[in-house]
Amino acid sequence: MTAFWILAPIMVIAALGILFVRKAVHAALLLAVVMISLAVLYAVLEAPFLFAVQIIVYTGAILMLFLFVLMLVGVDASDSVVETIRGQRALAIVGGLLLGLVLVLGVGQISLGTGVGLGGANGEGNIQGLANILFSRYVFAFETTSALLITAAMGAMVLAHRERLTPKPTQAALAAQRMRDYADKGTHPGPLPPPGVFARHNAVDTPALLPDGTASEASVSRVLAARGTVRSAPALADDIEELQRQIGDAPHAGRTSPAATGSEEEQR
Question: Coiled-coil regions in this chain (predicted)?
Answer without folding.
Answer: none
